[in-house]
């Protein structure tokens, strides 16, 4: 077990990719804090984690609320004595309204999907600094790198452009990864990110039309649909000692569609 004895906070872990991370980390021996707004779902995932052996707890978390992030960090330290790993997975995605174009909604998406990662990292920062070690893993997305928006309406000059809120937040997460890595590296803290491609979660099936999902898979080199479990090996690597000399990196896991570098 590659994470035995480690304590990991995983945000947005009540469902989807976050749940897959939580269960895989438990299988690898980590004590898992399942942190999510959805308290019932979080408790259900924590129960599954406990059935695999290690301790696990569910904590309510609103990543856009600084007090909430600090409370989760403090309660984790009280329960387990420290924080070794943070996965900033929480995001507005399942309930994302791609057509909402207001400033208020744009700011709301950024407050969770980008600022939330910053706030949660700040909440665990001082605990990891005292240990002179820690792994922070952000969740970006290949949506950050898809600049071509496709068909564009060119008849009505008063019609605003799409909001791009989700993609803007995710490119921000990729940038945040690099700046945080530089600031926290001297303290022995690694900061990296995973950028998943289109992953077959319930959220994706709800947001992306079915007739688009199939062709998307055919655009990838491996010609396979990406499942939440396909991301967990990368997360374990970034959380383990095997990645001790890696920081400031964004690892794309998408079956070979977005090939950076």
What does this structure look like?
- Helices cover about 45% and strands about 15% of the residues.
- With about 260 residues, it is of the alpha/beta class.
- Strands 3-2-1-4-5-6-7 form a seven-stranded parallel sheet, with helices on both faces.
How many separate helices?
A: 9
Q: Largest beta sheet: what is the strand line-up?
A: 3-2-1-4-5-6-7
Distance between the termini: 32 Å
Which structural class is indicated by helix and strand composition? alpha/beta
Order of helices and strands: EHEHEHEHHEHEHHHE
Q: Beta-sheet strand percentage?
A: 5-15%
Low-confidence stretches: none
- Gyration radius (Cα, Å) is 18 Å
Count of beta strands: 7
| Mean pLDDT, all residues | 93
Work out the helicity level. 40-55%
Morphology call:
globular
User: Largest sheet, if any?
Assistant: 7 strands, parallel
Task: Detail the topology: elements first, then pairings.
Blueprint: E1 7-11, H1 16-27, E2 31-36, H2 39-51, E3 56-60, H3 66-80, E4 85-88, H4 103-113, H5 115-131, E5 134-139, H6 165-184, E6 189-196, H7 202-207, H8 210-218, H9 232-239, E7 250-253
Parallel strand pairs: 1-2, 1-4, 2-3, 4-5, 5-6, 6-7
Helix pairs in contact: 1-2, 1-9, 3-5, 4-6
Task: Provide a short characterization of the protein structure.
With 261 residues, the chain is an alpha/beta fold. Helices cover 43% and strands 15% of the residues. Helix 1 (16-27) runs parallel beside helix 2 (39-51) and helix 4 (103-113) runs parallel beside helix 6 (165-184).
């Amino acid at each position: 077990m590659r994470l035995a004895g480690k304590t990991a906070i995983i945000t947005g872990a009540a469902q989807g990719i976050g749940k897959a991370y939580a269960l895989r980390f438990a299988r690898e021996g980590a004590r898992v804090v399942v942190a999510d707004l959805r308290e019932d779902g979080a408790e259900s995932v924590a129960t599954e984690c406990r059935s695999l052996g290690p301790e696990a707890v569910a904590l309510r978390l609103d990543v856009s609320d600084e007090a909430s992030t600090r409370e989760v960090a403090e309660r984790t330290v009280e329960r387990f004595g420290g924080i070794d790993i943070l996965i900033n997975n929480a995001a507005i995605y399942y309930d994302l309204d791609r057509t909402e174009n207001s400033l208020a909604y744009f700011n709301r998406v950024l407050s969770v999907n980008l600022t939330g990662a910053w706030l949660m990292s700040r909440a665990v920062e001082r605990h990891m600094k005292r240990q002179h070690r820690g792994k922070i893993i952000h969740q970006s997305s290949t949506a950050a790198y898809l600049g071509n928006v496709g068909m564009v309406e060119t008849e009505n000059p008063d019609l605003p452009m799409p909001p791009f809120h989700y993609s803007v937040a995710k490119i921000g997460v990729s940038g945040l990864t690099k700046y945080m890595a530089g600031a926290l590296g001297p303290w022995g803290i690694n900061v990296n990110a995973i950028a998943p491609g289109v992953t077959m979660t319930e959220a994706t099936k709800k947001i992306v039309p079915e007739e688009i999902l199939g062709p998307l898979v055919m655009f990838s080199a491996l010609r396979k649909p990406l499942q939440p479990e396909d991301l967990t090996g990368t997360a374990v690597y970034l959380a383990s000692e095997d990645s001790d000399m890696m920081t400031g990196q964004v690892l794309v896991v998408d079956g070979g569609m977005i090939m950076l570098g």
